[in-house]
Amino acid sequence: MDVFDVNGHEQVVFCQDRATGLKAIIGIYSTALGPALGGTRFYPYESEAAALADVLKLSRSMAYKNAMAGLDLGGGKAVIWGDPAQLKSEALLRAYGRFVESLNGRYYTACDVGTYVQDMDVVARETRYATGRSVQHGGAGDSSVLTAWGVFQGMRATAEHTWGTPSLRGRTVGVSGLGKVGKYLAGHLLEDGAEVVATDVSEAALDWARSTHPQISLVADTETLITSDIDVYAPCALGGALNDDTVRVLRAKVVTGGANNQLAHSGVGKLLEDRGILYAPDYVVNAGGVIQVADEIQGFNFERAKLRATGIFETTRRILSLADDEGVPPAVAADRLAERRMADVGRLRSIYL
């Protein structure tokens, strides 16, 4: 491929440390609003090309997510290529931290799939630009807490838009993935009076559900879940959950979940609209986590961060209203608002100080 064919990104950095086995890619999509912020995904991709494609997609999404969350931060993401169960070590994480530090604040990293707060504590020993650290090391702790809270707020807004009330009481919500975010989301839904149907590929996650929330109905797989009689579908695992095939059989009237990049391609938003299924853009509703780690940069205050994440309810309402007014899918409306903010606020950087 053309090395400059990187989907409009400002910078793509390839990092390698042979001694530890580190192979990482850092993608910085935009710094129009400020330093790029986005997590580090540690994943055994099938190929280098797959790793690059993922980091480009994810870093672009982070720029839009941070813009819609009202943060003065740009969008970036990193991937470490490999199986974390086999490859992750203190030396590798510290080597990665050195590469993050070399960008001198253009990119702040945090947790993502395959990385945890304990990992960010290690990374932070080599860089000033790691967030999502543990409370013991001056951080905010698990960002999944506010990610799930924000998804719940977005779901309340979609419920209001669809059924006239911002509550999931009496509704059946299908949660695909009971990991970092899904387990907290399930708890909020049960407290709100919803019925929860769920699935996960991890037997440990299913055991957690059986012991912690035995009222959750567990099904064999995601295909069974989406063809069940559910009102809301909440994808909370990896991306690409919504494609031509799944949308064709999906029975829910609303899709609101915590996974990133839920639409397999841009046309899926129109397919959902044609079927009368309301989709809350993933990067809008799952922004609670990035709100939390961004708050950590200035000295973390949980109540302040939670209040800001609660604002995802109003942001989602605004997007759904704009989509109705302009006759476009919510994903298009959200993109327009994010691009407008990046252009309008980013332009101020041209004023010499």
UniProtKB/TrEMBL annotation:
One of its GO terms (molecular function) is nucleotide binding. It comes from the Bacteria. Residues 141-350 form the Glutamate/phenylalanine/leucine/valine/L-tryptophan dehydrogenase C-terminal domain. The active site is at K77. The keyword Nucleotide-binding applies. InterPro entries: Aminoacid_DH-like_N_sf (IPR046346), Glu/Leu/Phe/Val/Trp_DH (IPR006095), Glu/Leu/Phe/Val/Trp_DH_C (IPR006096), Glu/Leu/Phe/Val/Trp_DH_dimer (IPR006097), Glu/Leu/Phe/Val_DH_AS (IPR033524), Glu/Phe/Leu/Val/Trp_DH_bac/arc (IPR016211), NAD(P)-bd_dom_sf (IPR036291). GO terms for biological process: amino acid metabolic process. Keywords: NAD, Nucleotide-binding, Oxidoreductase. NAD(+) binds at G177, L178, G179, K180, V181, G182. The keyword Oxidoreductase applies. PANTHER family: LEUCINE DEHYDROGENASE, VALINE DEHYDROGENASE. Belongs to the Glu/Leu/Phe/Val dehydrogenases family. This is Valine dehydrogenase. It comes from Actinoplanes utahensis.
